[in-house]
Amino acid sequence: MSEEGKAAAVNQDSSPVEENEPSVKAGSPNDFLKGVTGKRVAVRLNSGIDYLGTLSCLDGYMNIAMEDTTEYVDGNVKSSLGDAFIRGNNGTLTWFVRLTVVLYITALDEIDTQA
Q1: How far is CA 39 from the centre of its chain?
Q2: How far apart are CA 96 and CA 14, in angstroms?
Q3: Distance between CA atoms of residues 45 and 86, nearest Å
Q4: Rounded to an integer, what distance in angstroms lies between the CA atom of residue 79 and that of residue 36?
Q5: Is the pTM of the predicted complex or chain greater than 0.85?
Q6: What is the pLDDT of residues 26-61, one digit of tens each?
Q7: Distance between alpha carbon 9 and the CA centroid of its chain, in Å?
Q8: pLDDT value of position 21
Q9: Residue-by-residue DSSP string for 36-88
Q10: Exposure pattern of 81-100 as b/e (b: 16+ CB <10 Å)?
């Protein structure tokens, strides 16, 4: 890195950035979800149940389709589901329905972070 480049590369606290420090590229959640489609993911629900499988597709309502899915309850395998569909929240709340909410989706396979 040139001296000019070193002077320009600083952290928010004005300390220099190391040359070999990995740069983190912030992306949108939509970019992340596009990047993990077709990859192995873990989906955690508010009930504490985890689903591990290959993300087939999802939509804006967080309806999630997965393949080769395994359900885990309290860290233990509950069942092997194969294809699974997790119905997301469409924004309509009914007082007598206990909502299943997706807390997070995390990648289990390495994803390409290059845009």
Answers
A1: 11
A2: 53
A3: 10
A4: 23
A5: no
A6: 688 888 888 899 999 999 998 889 999 999 999 888
A7: 29
A8: 44
A9: HTTSEEEEEETTS-EEEEEEEEE-TT--EEEEEEEEEETTEEEEEEEEEEE--
A10: eeebebebeeeeeeeeeeee
